[in-house]
Design brief:
It is built from 10 helices and 16 strands. By secondary structure, the protein is α/β, with parallel strands linked by helices.
């Protein structure tokens, strides 16, 4: 999964598991979000590829957020990042010189934890994640197959310490004892400074390909995170909400399914350096607007 064509083809291959949306042709090219300020009461931003790439802020992003705030728009950040706590997400944007309030960030981890039943969850997580915000008993999963067999379900938060060998252990355990698998980040990949990282959604779809039936995806394009955003914007019609993202099958598709307007951001994310209309036509996912950077 090291090139855009392969990533796009994989998203298309799992399309039947994604929400459906009416994304009619008719994308308008704009030069700045200020061009469409009159079309929106709230702007929702993906993080990777729109506001930042890895640990680096995208030039001009912080200033654009400030511009929109001054114009009276609501701002929200909608991230599929599930590898750290909500408070850490706020701190990350402060480090990027993008000060945002805690209430303005919704993550796929937030939606995941709100939906967890009380049972013993085996957690696939980054080493530095202390799992203290999970409202249920947990067991961190590493290399012992017995630990996989002993839990009542799985929560996939991060791929940082994941490997093909551990994926095999998980698959074998699920064959013996079917249990729910919660994928807390539905992305297949994420853009980094030096390429793309595989994300939990990639491994979740591999399990689905193997016939694992109880897989629960959270994050874009699935509805729970969009519903959480809408709950923070009472009184704002859905067609006055604009989602700004870099990925057709997550940001754009999921927002279109909610009736939001959409902006495909092209320069720094998944489609950096590529002809995006060709991909839009192939997938029949057409954003309302497109631009280089916000």
């Amino acid at each position: 999964m090291d090139n855009v064509a392969t990533i796009f083809e994989r998203y298309e291959a799992v399309r039947h598991r994604l929400p459906m949306a009416d994304c009619a042709p008719g994308t308008t090219t704009i030069s700045s979000l200020l061009d469409i300020a009159d079309h929106a009461d709230a702007f929702i931003f993906d993080a990777y590829g729109v506001l930042n790439v890895g640990e680096s802020a995208i030039p001009g992003a912080s200033g654009r957020l400030a511009d929109l705030r001054r114009a009276g728009h609501q701002i929200r950040i909608l991230s599929n990042a599930a590898s750290y706590h909500h408070d850490d997400a706020t701190a990350k944007f402060e480090k990027l010189s993008m000060p945002v309030r805690d209430s303005e960030i919704v993550t796929s981890r937030d939606a995941t934890l709100a939906a967890l039943e009380t049972r013993l969850w085996g957690c696939i997580a980054a080493a530095q994640d202390d799992l203290s915000d999970i409202p249920a008993p947990t067991r961190r999963l590493l290399d012992d197959p017995a630990c996989y067999d002993a839990v009542d379900g799985f929560v996939f938060l991060s791929t940082e310490a994941w490997s093909a060998a551990r994926q095999d252990i998980l698959e074998n355990s699920l064959r013996k004892i079917p249990r729910p698998v919660v994928i807390a980040n539905a992305d297949l990949v994420a853009p980094r400074e030096h390429g793309f990282s595989l994300e939990p959604g990639y491994f979740g779809h591999l399990l689905a390909d193997q016939g694992v039936s109880d897989i629960r995806f959270f994050g874009k394009p699935f509805p729970q995170v969009y519903e959480r955003i809408e709950a923070t914007l009472p009184g704002i019609p859905r067609d006055r909400i604009v989602m700004c993202g870099d990925t057709l099958h997550t940001d754009i598709l999921g927002a279109a399914a909610r009736g939001w307007k959409t902006v495909l951001v092209e320069m720094d994310g998944l489609f950096s350096g590529h002809d995006t209309p060709r991909f839009c036509d192939s997938a029949q996912i057409h954003p309302t607007f497109r631009l280089s950077r916000i």
